[in-house]
Target: Acetyl-CoA acetyltransferase
Amino acid sequence: MMRHEAYITGIGLSEVGVRLSRSPLGLTVDAVREALADAGLGFDQIDGVATYPGRMPAFLGFSPVGTEDLIETLGLRTRWHAGGGEMTAQLGAIALAAAAVRAGHARHVICFRTVYEAAALARPEEYPPLRRKEVDGASQWTAPYFALSAANWTAQFATRHMKRYGLTREQLAQVALNAHANAARNPRAIVKKPLSLDDYMSARMISTPFCLYDCDRFTDASTVIIVSAGDALDEVTGVPVRVAATAGSVDRYSWDQAEWAGAYATGRDLWRQTDYTAADVDLVQFYDGFAFQPITWLEGLGFCEVGEGGRFIEGGARIALDGALPMNTGGGQLGAGRLHGFGMAHEAVTQLRGHAGARQVAGAPRVAIATSGGGPMAAALLLARD
Model:
């Protein structure tokens, strides 16, 4: 182990469900306890906390718990914490924690993402929806044109791929079919059975070319990743996984929509931070809030040429659990639930440790990529089992 590196030493996941009654803070504490037990650490050893995007009072279902909530609830004595939306997508919180432990600002950092959107919609009296007469910020460029969902603007990127590069719905379907097949092997996933191509093609449309199965679903859960300094590994009992490289990008939010999703810039930057190449990667966990987004990551990270993503996954064999590049082995967000990016890191670590059970990738995988984001912002982690 390398003293000046950062390692993921513990992972935790709360109950995952739809319209849960357990409070979001309670779910977060459950996931923290599981992660601490996994790492072999105690509350008194945690000196850092990171999250994305922090507590959002105006949109509590989306982000109901902030760093200060967790620090106070657990009685942590922290030296460093970070939690806000001004970072490179969800996994940017883990990248920041890795930088902090490398710089000596902390030794063990709890990184978490808690979502409560399904429960919040079911209990509007407790989690009132945001209602405004005027719009500002990023929504001023989309809401007046009835692009109220990320499905709307992500669909534009997908439609361009169809028009320019020949992406078909049958090719796009393979992302959802693969996610459902893998989720059926994952006891903690929301989806419990595989999906057929006929069922996919006959599903109602949401925002062309996306149908119902191309979109993740609101989920209630908390995911925790503990990042530790290399010189603190003698304090942990969990199997460490090294954060070998990180990258991220944020384009401006503007009326002039970014021409390319953030995955492309982030993909290029990731390989500048490491001697690893795409050929070294054993499996990938690509953000799939919508089924088109993994295609942007395949192209952005150089697993295929730009415009070739649809043909790369055609038929589904290449990205299957026993394929050349297993993808979203736990079911991703389309199958396991909308853990908003953090589930990708959780599954990557589970696979690299060899703890994935019926969905375990064969051959003792050593290198994985986890990503988050799908529009103008994106983040990627390259993880290695030393």
